[in-house]
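Hello forum,

I keep getting stuck at the same step: I have a sequence, I want structure tokens, and every attempt I make locally crashes halfway through. Rather than fight my setup again tonight, could one of you with a working pipeline run this one for me? It's a single chain of 542 residues.
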Amino acid sequence: MKNLKYIFLTIIMLSATFSCVEDDVMTKEGPVVEGSVLKLNEIMSKDVNDNPDWIEVYNSGTQDMDISGYFLNDKTTVGGYEIPAGTVIAAGGFYLVDANESGESISSGGEDVSLFEPDGTPIDHTVTPDMSSDVGLTWAREIDGAGEWKVSSPTPASSNGSAVNTAPILVADLLTEFIDVYGVTASDADGISSVKLIFMAGESVQSIDMALVDGEFKTSVPKAKVGELVRYYVIATDNTGLTTYYPNNGSSEPAEYTVAGGVKELEIVGESVGYRGEVTFTVTPYYTDQVDELRLYYLLPGEQQDEDNGFDDKTKVVLDQDGEIFTGVIPAQNTDDVISYYIRVEYLDGTKTYFPLEELDAEENVISNFNHDLGATWPSYTVEAIVYDDVVDQTVNYTDGPLTSVTFSTNPVPGTDFNVVLAYASSENIDEARIYFDVRDTPAYVKANKIKGEDDATFTQTGVTINMANVDAEDEGGVFTSNTSITGTKVTFYVRIATATAEYYYGNDGSMYLDDVNDDLDDTITDDFKADPSLWNVYTVQ
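Reply #2:
Ran it on my machine without issues. Output:
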């Protein structure tokens, strides 16, 4: 095995839990309520580790209270969550309910939170601020049941006065070589002083300040060389000087990865998305400036790849480079053929990385499903047939010139007739009709003269026969007979109608190109049409 361990890891972006969403900041005023010993006391609208939002109610009175049938709502109107029967808050105690039970998730962008008596009388109300940058913190009263609201460290089901100064809350995911912009969340009731990424590659050590953007502290990630060991950690510091690391012991035990490179983007294109005709592989690798060569390997039906057992049938294609893009082609194959393939990226330092990814254990044994030495594990595609509906004939209608339509078969099979019918508005002034065709990229044409009143004419070309029959004055039919037995053969053709004053060229989708006898028109238009078979009519042998 000649490949480094290659692992794709993706950043899992932290989101507000339950149905908490990033909304615009709430600034509206709610109803003013007074006189109840029950108070909204603390609200969590963006917790960490997928924990649900929660609402805490405090009983500031000297007696226990039964709050059965009271309502909590994320609006200023009565409704929302009805507190279950038998619910009692002790004097000086707390009632806490989370969104999994209540369904009242609070938008981290800010939202109303209201408490109502069973008869709909409002008891308490607050508007939470934008907490999107305060992950893991709460909106809480400074004093239980009284005082101003502020961003605070969480104290669920306990006194807000019990909150102590704690280190920042830091949430991060693994950094990998495939991440261009790295983001973490950091918050603290006393405010964040700084968040830094310490990045160590080779002999280089960088301390990078991370900026707060859309609720996350972010930075661009430096690029290392293929084969280098990268070590890193994140340190968040609050305004009181307390710090938190990711990983937990990051300063002494940093996270690490080895730069392997590989395929960043891959596009595989075959004709009509059915892999008919040539199939083009377009590859964008990581670290293009360090790439020595990209190769595409493939196996055709009946070929095998298993060198340990004497099979090495693979075909190699060295991909052509144009800037950061590499391209290579697998030639056209027959319908229903299964083609297996993989891509190898080789870097200047000799590192070889594969697509699909190939993972090795410490002893360099392949532990992934893909093994570049075993063709049976390679990805593959199947050359698909053109699928036709029940309509045998296809008609292309024309509105200009003497020709009004071309009707031709859309489901020919090798050795059978391919019918063509030309219909005219009037044939009196037509001198001749021709069909020009291109079979398997070999240009040729057959000329069929329309001579009114004479016998049908047959013209033969190598591999293909065209019979143009003078059916009547306004309708002229012909037959292609394909002598080739290769399924998937594509035949493109166009029709030329000549009169005494002009020549008319008919392609696909009803297109018509005019060339007058007196050369008053631009000949390059028709020349370009004749040179571009993509503008012609087409059928494929089934």
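The chain is about 0% helix and 45% strand. If your local run keeps crashing, start a new thread with the error log.
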